[in-house]
Please model this.
Amino acid sequence: MKKIILALATSAAVLGFAAAASAQDKTKICFIYVGSKTDGGWTQAHDIGRQALQAEFGDKIETPFLESVPEGPDAERAIERMARSGCALVFTTSFGFMDATIKVAEKFPDVKFEHATGFKSAPNVATYNSRFYEGRYIQGIIAAKMSQKGVAGYIASFPIPEVVMGINAFVHGAQSVNPDFKVKVIWANTWFDPGKEADAAKALIDQGVDILTQHTDTTAPMQVAAERGIKAFGQASDMIKAGPETQLTAIVDTWGAYYIKRTKAVLDGTWKSEQVWDGLKDGILTMAPYTNMPDDVKKLAEETEAKIRSGELHPFTGPIKKQDGSDWLADGAVSDDGTLLGMNFYIAGVDDQLPK
Amino acid sequence: MGIVEAILLTVITAATPLVLASIGELVTERAGVLNLGVEGMMVMGAAIAFAATQMTGSPYIGILAGIAGGGLFSLLFGFLTLTLVANQVATGLALTILGLGISGQIGEPYVGMSGTKLQPIVVPLLSDIPFLGPLLFKQDIIFYVSIALVIGVNWFLFKSRAGLKIRAIGDNHGSAHALGIHVIRTRYLAVMFGGACAGLAGAQLSLVYTPQWVENMSAGRGWIALALVVFASWRPWRVLAGGYLFGAVSISQLHAQAFGIGIPSQFLSALPYIATVVVLILISHNRRMTQINTPACLGKPFVPDR
Model:
């Protein structure tokens, strides 16, 4: 009897794999998600991309995925299981999967890997990323226009370059409108915990911020902002449903086109390891409709977006000083991508100490 | 509203699900059953409560559905471990994995919807007391129930005959059986009580804490609740104290960050756990007292020798 129970218990654990194990003739394009595919944010955006990919190629491919894979040692096991199950291409869609992806890729030289938002690559590991900071710069401008108190709250996840870059872009955008604009930062040290994200939002609002922005994955902060009657920005997916009268805009990740392009390359045999970093102009990120703001703010936001698209404006254009007062960019100078991708410093005006 | 009051309000919301799930698990463990499936039962309660609320429009029906859902789901654990005498640790872990999966299925149609927030019940007169009034007497029903449960369980376990039987079973199921106490039947009830409490804690998550459904929304709170039972050395009042200590430190660290006091955020995030460990060390220095409180038959299978 005990054996049956044990079998029951383990079968519950591998249920998710049952779907992935069938059919051999189709090319397998696999996905590893850090959250659940219906989180309303980051992972959902990737899953919408996956669905677009499946729709594009129909019967030619299969797109198995694993959800809620924790960053760390478990990730390596999950990626390895995917690679072993015969995937031709594996997309690992969170920064924290970086080292695990590289490790597994060494063991499976014939499988191709694509890691989102990281900076380590290999002959069979490409990286892809989106210039989220372009959207955050626009958000900063809107925040400075909309805030009565001149203080915004920022719920951050982990102190990695991606997130630090976002904070800097937001602050720089805001201070281009109001040089005294302040940002309070809370590091939640998680990507996904609705309760904790809501707690952080409450703490920030209790301390007097009247605009909220987040770099975590659920709509909980948007909901708190709606309840307390302040404005907020959505992250990764359009979060307008969580705050119809709250969301100003959102950075919407639109990965589908990229996934289709790379899958085509695998099917054609032309896939190469590349480091792709696309932005607003390439359509890998879009801004959700500008809502709940006066027309002049909306116009300014749209103009800024158009300028970034055309390449006329780079959000990180000097003069910019670092937080410690030293010079970073001279007047008119534009940051190179390398500095941004490894960003480990705040620019002047951020009212927080960067965790090391 | 002052900042202290604002902080305390947030603490209450954060601590309530921990207290609820812990007090239920405490009764289960006092009866000698270790159910590691709290996380799974909690997240099931959250999904079912949210779904029922969306279907009927009444969060109170949602709460009842959450309680029933958690209780029924724990029956599966009861059947496997009590009737079939499966390993409790393995079954509990399986229950968590299963709960996370099934709740995702139940909640799928409701993803992205903004839920109905459970409204507070204002107690007349008492809520006018300055400072304490709004904190303690302008809360939702789940908060009142959580406090009542702690008081009730404390009375039940240590002052009632049925409670004495439960403790006897947890300490020595062989002797209890010999005395004619229904070990298996009582354990079933204790397991279901634990499940119902975890379900109620889940309902609090999806109706009060963050009125929405997202998969895996309990985000590890079930595990913290499990740890709190050990922290409380199986005593109800300490569950209350532990839950609020954990909640208070968790929320204070967020405020400390927003104030910008310059302590590394990783350290602040670890603070609730550090505080818990420190208190645990302080209260467990008396080994004899700890041993007396620990149910001696915890996790051990029982097969009646007819």
